[in-house]
Every structure is written in C-alpha cells, then in structure tokens.
Amino acid sequence: MAVESNREIGQAGNASNRVPAVQLEGVTKRFADVTAVAGIDLEIADGEFFSMLGPSGSGKTTTLRMIAGFEEPTSGRILLHGRDITGVPPFDRDVNTVFQDYALFPHMSVADNVGYGLVVRKVARSERSRRVEEALRMVRLEDYGARRPSQLSGGQRQRVALARALVNRPRVLLLDEPLGALDLKLREEMQIELKAIQQQVGITFIYVTHDQEEALTMSDRLAVFNAGRIEQVGSPADVYEHPATTFVAGFVGTSNLLTGDVAVAVIGEPGVYTVRPEKIRIADVGTEPESDEASAVGRIRDVVYVGPDTRYIVALEVGGELVVTQQNLETSSMEALATQGRSVRLIWKRRHVLSLATSEK
Ligand code: ATP
C-alpha cells in the first residue's frame, strides 16, 4: 500500500527530542460565565495517537476546536510544530478535522467528495486523481470511488470522511468522536483500522472520545479531562494501572474505592485506595491469604453474567463494596448466578492496591 513519501513517519516512542506537534500553554476558554477549559498545559509528540478522554462537558471538544482554530483561547498559547498559531485562521493551520457526522456531499461520488478540498485549492486534475486514489487506498475503499455516499455502510462513510481529510496531507488530524454514530461491533473494527491507518501514514492523530475502552485501545497516550482540567496524561497502561486521582480511577475502569473507616479496616491505614476488579479473587471464607496478600470478608450482593466474564458485587462486612470480575473459564452462567448471597473472602496481592490522590473537584 502506498505511503506518503514526503513526510517523515512519526514514532511516538523516540519523539522526545523533536519539536512537539502540538503544545498548549496555560490555555483557558470561557463562554460568558462558563469556563469550558481552565488553564491546561499539554504537549503532543509528532506522530502520536493521542486521545482526549473525559465525560460530557469536560472541555475536550472545546480544546480540539481551539487547536483547529474554530475557537480562540481566552488566554494562553497554542503552538503547532513550534509555531505560535494563536489567532491564525483554521485554513492556514496544517490540521484537518474529521467530525462525527461525516458531512459528506450526498450528490457527489465518493471520489469527488474525497477530492473536493483539492479542487478548492486548485490542485491539477492528474495530481488530484492520483491523490484521491491514494487516499481511498489508505482507507481500503479503492473500488468505491464511483459510488454515492448513500450506497455505503456507516463504517464505509466514516472511512470516506477520513480519506477526505488524509488527502490534504495534514500534519495533524483532529477527530471528534468519529465513531460515535456506529454500532458497537463496527466501532470496534474501526478502532483497530484507524490505529493501523495512523501507524501507516505517521500523521499525528488527536482523538476526542468519552469512551474509555476506545481511548485505551487506540492511544499511544491519553489525557483524562474533568471539568475543564486535565487530571492525568499517560500511556493507557499508566492511566489504568496507576490512576493519579480518584476521578481517573473511576472514569477509566471500575473505581472500587476503599476510603475512610473501610480503608483503615481493610488496608490498615487511612487514605483512598483502589483495587481493580480483575485483580481480586473469590475464595471460601476460611481461606488463609498468603503473606503478600490482603483480604476482606463479604457477601455476594449481585451477580452480572456478561458472556466471557462475570461481575460480582460484594458487600464487605466492614462496610463498602468491591466489584470483582472473573473470566468464565470453567464457570457456566448457572453456576455464576447461584453464588448470589454467598459469604466469601476476597483476596488480592498487596502490590495491586493503588493509593490515590483525591481530585480537586
Ligand atoms: P461532549 O463529550 O459532550 O462533547 P466535551 O467534553 O467535548 O463534551 P465541551 O463541548 O468542550 O465538552 O464543553 C465544555 C463546556 O463548555 C460545557 O459546559 C459546554 O456547555 C460549554 N460550551 C461549549 N461550547 C460552548 C459555547 N459555544 N457557548 C457556551 N458554552 C459552551
């Protein structure tokens, strides 16, 4: 498959000595009395797949729109490849945006949709058709150029929208919940495909989503947004295994918080702690934990069978609840559901207990 040759392929792993693709310095955005983005600092490396993850209204889209140039920061600076672009209009920035609703022209063929931006920029016809072909090949739609958007599936339409952005060869591609309109199965397929395309073209992707699994699956690094601030930036493994705050622990995965008296009773010290559900095993009440393990006794309050896994919600004797997930390696749904109401001992390795900072908000 053809790869653009006039661009150095970005590798997030060794990008530290290069100029970042995007830098945000103390960026704030206010709309009347709403502070959508409250002073964020961020560096995104060239060639990185970077996600902005957070709940609705946390400021992700506003941040993306400021990078695109559709919104002006109230204060702070934005640099693209080292150049201050605060105040530069969108069309003079080396970025393209892919939106959730695709915004394809229904009366034009797929190829004409993809080539539209090149027509506007007066790129010669032969060059245009070469680049349209190349972009359609990248998204595996080389045989679909003559079709109308209405003759495509949702996933194919999303790929046309992507090709239309890639054809401009932007150095940075902004994607705002681009898979939001697709059903779960197609979403999962497209996640893998998007990541593969990004690795192939080496363009910096900045991806907005509120779906934690999506962010964990695709990103080299991600930023977790909460109420206009960034709570943590890190690799998916960092953010999942070492959440910096209570908010991050809850938003990325099941929080399983142990606080107050429960923390003192279970962990032995005051503080805020979490143990991920898949790190806990369920044993008989009489089981003795090993020396490197901790445990708590409780009663299985609820059982949720979800095919490959079962989630057990366990009310602890000392108060509070922990969720435990177990793979159904040998367990049938009947066996799993029959455990409801049973007294058990939950056991986990002490090293899997994470100590958390509490979020400001
Ligand atoms: P979502 O996932 O729902 O898109 P988000 O994290 O992208 O959410 P933003 O769209 O950036 O959040 O919005 C952040 C805050 O700023 C919200 O409280 C929102 O209502 C507010 N906001 C965004 N755009 C405007 C605007 N043009 N005028 C006024 N308030 C706005």
Describe the structure.
- By secondary structure, the protein is an alpha+beta fold.
- The protein has two domains: 2-94 and 170-250, P-loop containing nucleotide triphosphate hydrolases (Rossmann fold); 254-355, RNA polymerase II/Efflux pump adaptor protein, barrel-sandwich hybrid domain (OB fold (Dihydrolipoamide Acetyltransferase, E2P)), CATH 2.40.50.100.
- Helix content is 27%, strand content 29%.
- The chain has helices spanning 60-68, 110-120, 125-138, 154-166, 184-201, 212-218, 236-241, 246-251, 260-267, 333-338; strands spanning 22-31, 34-44, 49-53, 75-80, 83-84, 95-98, 172-176, 204-209, 221-226, 229-234, 257-258, 273-274, 281-283, 293-306, 309-316, 321-327, 343-349, 354-355.
- The strands form four sheets. A six-stranded mixed beta sheet has the order 6-7-8-3-9-10, sandwiched between helices. Strands 13-17-14-15-16 form a five-stranded antiparallel beta sheet. Strands 2-1-4-5 form a four-stranded antiparallel beta sheet, with helices on one face.
- Strand 4 and strand 5 form a beta hairpin.
- The longest helix is centred in the middle third of the chain and has 18 residues, at 184-201.
- The protein is globular.
- The structure holds adenosine-5'-triphosphate.
